[in-house]
């Protein structure tokens, strides 16, 4: 979602004359778009700000400006504290207010003092009543694979997570607005669209007719009617929001990829209750079983947290058992890290040595499963979207339906196309093969 937000900020700034620079030393403005969900997020932000401060000082010596802005969830959580620790920062704005960038830049320029440097102290971390999406221009960039935010915020309040405090309550965009943006993205060259949301399958947006609401399954079925849109994905999902219509879409919408990221976090019901996850392992397995029955080609990825306060050795063993029972194509696993302001941060913490040992065991199992899944594709024909160029001429990297990176040699004209690839090699994080026809 931060990638999507960053792309939209670029779209907002272009009419003001801004262009992307790869060199901070040449930039008039530097924006740090931040995430608060991981450990040490704040420290990383201040470290990056320190590096930008040196560029700012150098430019001031040349009678030039470097405005520095901090956006995203760290900005939302830290607020004015950023100005206290980094007084050279010009703007702080949360993830719900970046559509106000032009207005804030204007204020910043008005407050600039040639003797003291760029304007400072402009902050906007409100949760505005107006929907930010109404103020965002349609992108003019060509992206073969595009992101599209359909839902933001979270009402689940998991005990370990800061998202409800930094992104706000769940909000679903009207279906008409999403369809308009999707059609524009396809017109700009998008073949694949990934629908985004903190709880994307909690989507309940107003129908195009303005009467009633659509769930994510309804929205996907309508998106599939857009000519030229060949692939649809969505992330990130919550197990309790896997409605029947959404699961049925996996069986009946060919554009919907047979791959789902469905975070479980733990294999222990005791830990899930402590996490305030609102689902049980039995429910999670039931969802997986239904989806596999509807779409036999279905594969899954997940998120796991080890060492949540209260997790015992037995709880951890239950997580390993779940992983063996489900078998994942891919997974993300982390040691629990206390996030300020969350309930779990006040609980008795598990020693880091225990968390590290558990994580190593879990990751070994998950990596083994991922390699096994990748090897299972050797000898098959996979549909691959060629969306990135390799390091050498004629080399391309694409994505399989299962989000695997696939390395091939291809003619330049095939960039952005979906091609059939005969898979002949598999590594832990990628596949390789030969295009069947060029």
Structural notes for this entry:
- It is a single chain.
- With 438 residues, this protein is an alpha/beta fold.
- It is 34% helix and 22% strand.
- It is built from 13 helices and 19 strands.
- It has helices at 2-13, 41-61, 73-78, 81-85, 101-110, 163-167, 175-187, 216-223, 244-252, 269-275, 281-294, 313-326, 352-375; strands spanning 29-34, 67-72, 91-93, 122-124, 145-149, 151-152, 171-172, 192-196, 204-206, 213-215, 231-235, 259-261, 299-306, 330-335, 381-389, 395-399, 405-409, 418-427, 430-435.
- It has a five-stranded mixed barrel with strand order 15-16-17-19-18. Strands 1-2-3-4 form a four-stranded parallel sheet, sandwiched between helices. The protein has a three-stranded parallel sheet with strand order 5-8-11, with helices on one face.
- β16 and β17 (405-409) form a beta hairpin.
- α8 packs parallel to α9 (244-252) and α12 (313-326) packs parallel to α13.
- The protein is globular, with a radius of gyration of 23 Å.
- Mean pLDDT is 91; it is low at 114-119.
The main sheet comes to:
5 strands, mixed, barrel
SS-derived structural category: alpha/beta
| Helical coverage, percent range | 25-40%
Q: Distance between termini?
A: 34 Å
Shape: globular
Bin the strand percentage. 15-25%
Gyration radius, rounded: 23 Å
Low-confidence stretches: 114-119
- Determine the mean pLDDT: 91
DSSP strand tally: 19
The number of helices is: 13
| Main sheet: strand order | 15-16-17-19-18
């Amino acid at each position: 979602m931060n990638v999507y937000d960053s792309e939209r900020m670029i779209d907002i700034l272009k009419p003001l004359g801004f262009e992307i620079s790869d060199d901070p030393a040449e930039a008039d403005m530097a924006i740090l778009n931040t995430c608060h969900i991981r450990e040490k997020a704040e420290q990383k932000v201040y470290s990056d700000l320190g590096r930008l401060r040196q560029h700012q000082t150098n430019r001031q010596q040349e009678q030039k400006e470097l405005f520095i802005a901090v956006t995203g969830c760290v900005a939302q959580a830290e607020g004015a504290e950023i100005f206290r620790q980094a007084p050279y920062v010009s703007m702080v704005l949360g993830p719900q207010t970046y559509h106000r960038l032009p207005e804030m830049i204007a204020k910043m320029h008005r407050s600039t003092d040639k003797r003291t440097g760029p304007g400072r102290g402009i902050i906007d971390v409100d949760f505005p009543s107006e929907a930010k999406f109404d103020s965002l221009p349609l992108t003019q960039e060509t992206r073969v694979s595009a992101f599209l935010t359909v839902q933001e915020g979270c009402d689940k309040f998991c005990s370990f997570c800061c998202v409800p405090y930094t992104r706000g309550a769940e909000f679903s965009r009207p279906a008409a607005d999403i369809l308009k943006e999707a059609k524009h993205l396809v017109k700009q060259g998008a073949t694949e669209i990934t629908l985004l949301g903190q709880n994307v399958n909690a989507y309940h947006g107003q129908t195009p007719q303005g009467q009633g609401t659509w769930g994510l399954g309804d929205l996907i079925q309508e998106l599939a009617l857009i000519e030229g849109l060949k692939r649809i994905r969505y992330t990130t999902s919550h197990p309790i929001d896997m409605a029947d219509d959404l699961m049925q879409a996996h069986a009946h919408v060919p554009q919907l990829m047979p791959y789902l990221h469905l975070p479980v976090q733990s294999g222990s019901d005791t830990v899930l209750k402590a996490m305030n996850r609102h689902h049980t392992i039995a429910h999670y397995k039931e969802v997986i079983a239904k989806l596999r029955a509807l779409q036999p080609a279905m594969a899954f990825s997940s998120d796991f947290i080890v060492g949540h306060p209260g997790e015992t050795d037995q709880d951890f063993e239950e997580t390993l058992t779940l992983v063996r029972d489900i078998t994942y194509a891919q997974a993300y696993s982390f040691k629990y890290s206390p996030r300020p302001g969350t309930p779990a941060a006040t609980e008795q913490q598990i020693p880091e040595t225990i968390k590290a040992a558990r994580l190593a065991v879990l990751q070994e199992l998950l990596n083994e499963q991922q390699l096994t899944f990748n090897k299972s594709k050797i000898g098959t024909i996979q549909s691959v979207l060629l969306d990135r160029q390799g390091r050498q001429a004629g080399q391309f990297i694409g994505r399989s339906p299962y989000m695997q990176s696939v390395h091939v040699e291809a003619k330049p004209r095939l960039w952005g196309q979906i091609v059939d690839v005969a898979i002949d090699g598999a590594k832990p994080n990628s596949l390789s093969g030969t295009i069947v026809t060029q």
